[in-house]
Amino acid sequence: MLEVYLAVVSGLDPEGEYPLSLYRREKLKRQKNALARKQGMGAELLLIKALEAAAPGLLPPLDIVCGKDGKPVLAGSGICFNLSHSGSFAACAVSDSPVGLDIQTERDCNDRLAEKYFTAPERRFLAESENKAYAFTMLWSMKESCVKLLGTGLKTPLSSFSVDPQSNTACLDGHVLYFFHDRINGCHLALCSADGAAISGIKIIEVKLLP
Question: Where are the beta strands (DSSP E) in 9-156?
């Protein structure tokens, strides 16, 4: 099972009362930016929506704790999840196995960042692409989803591994990782999993979050 929920968060009230976890409420205490608050709220509301089908026994407020390297996990549950947001969109992935999710609003190619964070094969792919903005954002989102799958954050530099957007795979520490990528509503959505079958059977669900 691999499902991705996507929603616009602009209609949420940044000071609104929602059935959010203690983990989320603590993060929101430190976040003063209105859009960032909406993004965080929206991502967890999408997780709640996803669990209505995937794990109906897990009711809000959810018990989210930080696991190894600070990656949030659902306590006492076999459900894996990952959250992301960009601009006015939030996204949530739920799966039976670890998953990494990243969503990025398409942006112009940044040669300085590409030189610093992309490997030689990735820079070659970028140079040969007709649409540099598309290729740059695709590569960036795929690499971010890989790091989020691992849950290691900055401990795994983006420049330390290559993703292959032509085969939608990467090899990391001798293990093959699989990717899904698509451009939806102007955003690049990338998922990474060690389960190739889950990636091939992905389901994307767009929902409306009520204010």
Answer: 64-66, 72-74, 80-86, 89-95, 99-105
Task: Give the count of beta carbons closer than 10 Å to the beta carbon of residue 143.
Answer: 28
CA dist., res. 39 & res. 14, Å (int):
9
Encode pLDDT of 116-145 as tens digits.
999 999 999 999 999 999 999 999 999 999
- 11: its two tokens: 């209609």
DSSP 110: -
Q: Which residues pair with 206 in a beta bridge?
A: 6
DSSP 14: T
User: Between helices 22-29 and 34-54, what is the axis angle to 10°?
Assistant: 170
Alpha-carbon distance of 82 to 197, in angstroms, equals 18
- DSSP result, 57-82: T-PSSP-EEE-GGG-EEETT---EEE
Q: What's the pTM value of the predicted model, to 2 decimals?
A: 0.94
Separation of alpha carbons 172 and 27, rounded Å:
31
DSSP assignment of 153-196, as one string? GGGS-GGGS-EETTTTEEEETTEEEEEEEEEETTEEEEEEES-H
